[in-house]
């Protein structure tokens, strides 16, 4: 266990926030303050644990937000949409000189905080962004496998398959990204030599089965290619629910948008995912095929990382980051994305201790 501190979980009444709290209770000795707009839901889910307290918080009130951050040593942001709230919360945490963990990967937030990196470092603070599932474990998993098995990477083929309920905040951020970055990364001059732009059918391990993965290349995939220096890279994703896929396709066909229809479309996406979850069991799977060299010999490794609920994985990832900060094992100060941390091996080991399944198969 870790030393006792106070952790503030903003947005802790939501689906992912409660998973963060549950994981923190299991893996740390910390006292936790759940803050959000809806008081009451978390009390039942956390079984009235004496280490958990609850506060109503309006993050649009700078004074109340500052007072809340001042009570805590670590601020964990599970609120959303990330594009609307992350800057307010992170800047308040910095003003109060607190560590900060953000499950989202908003690129604009990263740019804003990097400009203040010298201040963050001078105060010996740790600001970790992209500390969830996607982004987060999506980038760390291939980096971990590559460093473990290879000296050089020649090719990478990577699939992400998910069937789960999409929260409104996540849906909102997804809709905004579809509108604002329809072909994000595909025209980068520093992308790998071969990026397959289309779809590919593959049969993944249970419970996924046969899927059609759709090619994509964005900031997260760019960071993976940069870290591995892979000569070729293929990235595929699919939301396995029929209604979710249909809703995402319809959203991608819309040419004009404003705030009102972003909200409507976000609600539409949430409802579609709920229909899919009623028909099927939830899961999230990362399936990775790496080829390269190790000690002068060609080598191929196929790896999977899976969990039965994507929200649970996001919660465990973020709580594990907090545990590493508390224990002093995440020694890097400043602002950085999770995959840039200095302790990836122990991070993966802690995930597996909490039931995250990682399977590796070598083909020489």
Summarize the structure in words:
This protein has a 7-stranded parallel beta sheet with strand order 3-2-1-4-5-6-13, sandwiched between helices. A 7-stranded mixed beta sheet has the order 8-9-10-7-11-12-14. The protein has helices at 15-27, 41-45, 62-71, 82-95, 107-114, 117-122, 137-149, 168-180, 219-228, 242-252, 259-279, 310-327, 344-353, and strands at 6-10, 31-36, 52-56, 74-77, 99-102, 126-129, 152-163, 199-204, 209-215, 232-239, 283-294, 297-307, 334-337, 357-363. It is built from 13 helices and 14 strands. The chain is α/β, with parallel strands linked by helices. The chain folds into 2 domains: 6-133 and 312-353, NAD(P)-binding Rossmann-like Domain (Rossmann fold), CATH 3.40.50; 137-308 and 357-363, Dihydrodipicolinate Reductase, domain 2 (2-Layer Sandwich). The protein is 42% helix and 26% strand.
The CATH superfamily of the largest domain appears as Dihydrodipicolinate Reductase, domain 2
CATH topology of the largest domain: Dihydrodipicolinate Reductase, domain 2
Low-confidence stretches: 182-190
What is the C-alpha radius of gyration, as a whole number of Å? 20 Å
Helix content: 40-55%
Structural class: alpha/beta
Order of helices and strands: EHEHEHEHEHHEHEHEEHEHHEEHEHE
Question: What descriptors fit this protein?
Answer:
364 residues; alpha/beta; 2 domains; 26% strand; 14 strands; Dihydrodipicolinate Reductase, domain 2; Rossmann fold
């Amino acid at each position: 266990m870790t030393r006792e501190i106070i952790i503030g979980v903003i947005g802790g009444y939501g689906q992912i926030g409660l998973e963060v709290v549950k994981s923190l209770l299991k893996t740390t000795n910390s006292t936790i303050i759940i803050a959000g707009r809806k008081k009451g839901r978390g009390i039942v889910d956390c079984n009235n644990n004496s280490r958990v307290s609850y506060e109503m918080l309006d993050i649009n009130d700078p004074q109340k937000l500052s007072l809340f951050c001042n009570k805590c040593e670590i601020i964990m942001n599970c609120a959303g949409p990330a594009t609307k709230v992350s800057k307010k919360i992170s800047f308040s945490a910095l003003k109060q000189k607190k560590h900060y963990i953000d499950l989202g990967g908003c690129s604009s937030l990263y740019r804003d905080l990097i400009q203040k990196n010298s201040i963050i470092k001078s105060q010996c603070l740790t600001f970790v962004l992209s500390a969830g599932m996607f982004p987060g474990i999506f980038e760390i998993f291939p980096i971990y496998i590559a460093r473990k098995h290879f000296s050089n990477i020649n090719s990478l083929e990577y699939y992400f398959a998910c069937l789960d309920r999409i929260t409104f905040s996540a849906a909102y951020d997804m809709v905004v990204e579809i509108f604002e970055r329809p072909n994000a990364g595909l025209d980068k001059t520093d992308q790998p030599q071969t990026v397959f732009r289309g779809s590919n059918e593959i049969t993944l391990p249970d419970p996924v089965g046969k899927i059609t993965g759709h090619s994509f290349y964005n900031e997260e995939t760019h960071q993976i290619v940069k870290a591995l220096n892979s000569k070729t890279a293929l990235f595929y994703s699919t939301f396995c629910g029929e209604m979710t896929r249909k809703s995402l396709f319809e959203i991608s066909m819309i040419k004009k948008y404003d705030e009102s229809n972003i909200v409507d479309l976000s609600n539409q996406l949430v409802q579609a995912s709920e229909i899919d979850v009623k028909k099927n069991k939830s899961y999230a799977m990362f399936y990775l095929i790496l080829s390269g060299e190790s000690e002068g010999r060609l080598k191929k490794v196929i790896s999977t990382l899976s969990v039965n609920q994507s929200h649970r994985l996001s919660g465990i990832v973020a709580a594990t980051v907090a545990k590493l900060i508390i224990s002093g094992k995440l020694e890097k100060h400043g602002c950085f994305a999770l995959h840039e941390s200095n302790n990836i091996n122990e991070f993966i080991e802690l995930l597996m201790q909490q039931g995250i399944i990682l399977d590796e198969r070598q083909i020489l």
